[in-house]
Amino acid sequence: MTLIKELHSEWLQDPAYRVAYDALDEEFSLVQALIEARVRAGLTQAELATRMETSQSAVARLESGRVNPSARTLERFAKATGTRLNIRFDPVVPA
Fold it and tell me: Is the backbone of residue 82 left (phi > 0), alpha (psi -120 to 50) or beta?
């Protein structure tokens, strides 16, 4: 059986795949930051949902990257995980 990691490594050799994958970097970074904040807080999705006064499925959608959260939602997420929301704009480095 081929592992996803192996397929991904192979596919990264394809320039079109690489461009498409790199275009999702910001989305992946946000999802990773959300999951890491929840895990560091020692919360399950259900516990986080209770603190945010929302549903577990809403938290799951946030963590899956299927929705674009508003700044208000990110603020509620930060408060519920005991973190501080920090949005910043970094200059783009030419390739």
Answer: left
